[in-house]
From TrEMBL:
Keywords associated with the record: DNA-binding, Repressor, Transcription, Transcription regulation
Organism in which the protein naturally occurs: Gilliamella apicola
Annotated GO MF terms: DNA binding; DNA-binding transcription factor activity
Signal peptide per UniProt: none
Lineage per the UniProt record: Bacteria, Pseudomonadati, Pseudomonadota, Gammaproteobacteria, Orbales
Keyword Transcription among UniProt keywords: yes
Xref: Pfam families: MerR_1
Superkingdom, taxonomy of origin: Bacteria
UniProt protein name: MerR family transcriptional regulator
Transcription among keywords: yes
Residue intervals of the HTH merR-type domain: 22-91
Amino acid sequence: MVNINDCILSIAQNGELNQTPKYSVTKAAKLLGLSAHTLRYYDSLNLFPFLQRDQNEKRLFSDADLQWAKLIECLRNANMSIKDVQHYVKLCLQGDETLDERLAIINQQEKTLMDTITLLNEQLALLRFKKQYYKTAHQLKKQ
């Protein structure tokens, strides 16, 4: 199993993230713009392999955990299924022997997201066309 330092290298652009647990679920959720329920759900699926708990078994998130959560949310927002995110996390924990498979997953998610962006841009162009049409029609009606 890979340790947290290896995982941090894969999520921190400068390779440094504080691992000190300091955020409650509520605070972490607020910082991330997610619901506490979502974070608890992700934790119940073992998507936070290094998450620590206090003496009362309450979850405590570190800065490293927050970045890990951002990665998970990024994958989810790119339409990756929970099952596939779980698989991706397991691959991360296996270490460098899974680099090729993880790269393939990230490449596929990038393509999926680019396809979604293209579709959204086409839809936005149509809405803008309709908006301009209605503005022009409204102006002509006033005359």
